[in-house]
Each structure stands twice: as C-alpha cells, then as structure tokens.
Amino acid sequence: MRKLIVLAVVLFTAIIASQISSCNSSTSDSKAGDTGDSVKKVVARGEYLANYVSGCIDCHSKRDFTKFSGPVVAGTEGSGGFIFDEKLGLPGALYAKNITPDKETGIGNWTDEEVLRALTHGINKKGDTLFPLMPYPNFNRIAKEDLLSIIAYIRTLKPVKNIIPDRRLMIPIGMAYPAGILQPSIDGNVRPPETDKVKYGEYLTRMGDCGTCHSPLTEHGPDRSRLFAGGYRFDLGTFKVVSANISPDSATGIGSWTEDQFIAKFRNNSADANVNRNPGAENSIMPWTLFGKMKDDDLKAIYAYLRSVKPHNNKIEKYPK
C-alpha cells in the first residue's frame, strides 16, 4: 500500500508541474482522477479476494459459532486469535495472527515485502518459519498483483490491539515446512484468463485452499492422492463436522450436480435466514457467509475445475457422533 501511495504522490506532483507550465487544469484533473481510480481498483480487488476467495478474513477474525457457519464478528476483522489445535488434527496449538495495521500487535510496522514473504514463503518479519496451516505453498503460485492487492486492502483495516499467544507445537517446525516445493520468486506467476474456466477455477481453488479442508487428513497433512475427496474431521467443541466430498464422483461427490445447483448451494447457505439461526450440533466450519458472496462467474469457474479433477468414491458422514 505504501508503494501505491508513493506512486500516487509522484504522479500527482508531475500533474501539478504540467498544470503550471501548460495551464491546462482540465487535463491535469483528469489524470489525477485516473490515478485515484486505479488505487481504488487495487484495494477493491484485494477486498474481494481477502474476504470472499482467499479466506484471509475468515481465518484471521473472531467467528460466532452460535450462528450457522460462524460468521465473522463485526469489528474483529483481521485481529486474529482463532485457535487451531489437536481437535482439528494439528500437532499442537496454533493461533491465527493479528494482521490489522496495529503497530504493536499487528503488522503495522511490516513492509509490503515482509508481508509478501510471509504470504508466499512462510517467513515472518522476525525470520521465524510459519506452520503451513497458513497456505503459503498455495500463495507461492498466485500472481503477485493479486497478492499485492490483498496487502493493499489489509492496510485499510481498522487497527485492533490484540496480543496473540505463541504457538505450541509438538514437532519441530522443520518437519512441517514444505521445503523444495516453493518457488524462489513469484514474479513469473500469472493469473489465468477468466475465459479459461478450468484454469481460472484451479487458480481460485488454490487461492481458497479448498484442497486442504476437502481432503482426508493424514499424519503428514492432507492426503494429496485423494484431493477433494472430503473426510477432514473438525471438532469445534460444540459440534463436529466432516468436510464434503467435492470431487466429481457421481455417487458420493458433486458429479451429479449442475452448475446452477452448485451456485445455489453457496447462495442458500449464505442467506440471512439461514445464517441468523443457531443450528446447534449441525453447524459448519465452512465460511458460507463469505464464500457465498463470491461472483457467479468465479463460482462457475471453480465448478468447471472441480468437474475436471479425479473422482473419488468416498461417502461422508457429515455429522459424526
């Protein structure tokens, strides 16, 4: 965000100089307006991705699980604190970090480059290695312009002072760090054209980290040989739920679903009437309130990609006893 502001200032200064020399204020005002619009577009893109595609706001906020799908508690966006522990199949306890611009407990003193390194290589400002629950192996393949737009948006969040506990791992972090699969540089990453639904859908699915939650969990992490087969068990204390099979298997997955049915699932589960109720033990950790606001074309692309992956016959008991 700081770089964008500097760019805007430089361009604005150049416009003023041109105005003095040519006295053509209308042309200068037009250029200044274009610059402001471009900054707004970057932040708007980041807002959309961070909230409705990548899951940043979902993971890094407080959620109210007395309501269906645990909608984000207003005012806590980005403040962190959500605990991921053994009940979720993790080797210890990890806490979502505070990613608001608070300078003491958040990322207010981080540079864009430091945030980008954490996003794509799992190394924080202090040089510590992040546990790959933070899906930096996925973000390592995302276009730099999209990641910078997310960072630009996060800079606009309300600063929240919230001290996050240190993680407590039962294994050395080196056992979890995905060495060898991360690209040294993300400069060559390209966002696929939206006209290529399957490729663009794969891109969005990777950004949303759908494969982690919708794959069986092993002691080494999600079973990549059964990607999208479902079966990840979540125990939130007040309820237990198992992730759905979203592979194109006709009997146990979404192979028999139409595109309209796929989109309707997101829209219906995020409807106010459905969210504003206490579902008791039949709740969901899936952030429908956020993902349900994804654009139709983006959901269609995800559907097209999921229909192209390997089908897995895996019948899911959604609410285990």
Describe this entry's structure for a reader.
This protein is mainly alpha-helical and 321 residues long. The chain is 38% helix and 6% strand. It contains twelve helices and seven strands. A three-stranded antiparallel sheet has the order 1-2-3, with no helix packed on it.
List the helices and strands and how they pair.
Layout: H1 2-22, H2 25-52, H3 56-59, E1 83-84, E2 92-95, H4 112-121, H5 136-139, H6 144-154, E3 168-169, H7 197-207, H8 210-213, E4 217-218, E5 221-222, E6 233-235, E7 240-242, H9 259-269, H10 272-275, H11 288-291, H12 296-306
Antiparallel strand pairs: 1-2, 2-3, 4-5, 6-7
- How does the helix and strand content classify structurally? mainly alpha
Strand content: 5-15%
Regions with little confidence, pLDDT below 50 for 5+ residues? 1-30
Query: Count the helices. How many?
Result: 12
Number of strands: 7
Q: What proportion of the residues is helical, as a percent range?
A: 25-40%
H and E string: HHHEEHHHEHHEEEEHHHH
Spatial order of strands in the largest sheet: 1-2-3
> How many strands, which pairing sense, and closed or not: the largest β-sheet?
3 strands, antiparallel
Mean pLDDT: 90
* Terminal CA distance: 47 Å
Morphology call:
globular
Q: How large, in whole angstroms, is the Cα Rg?
A: 21 Å
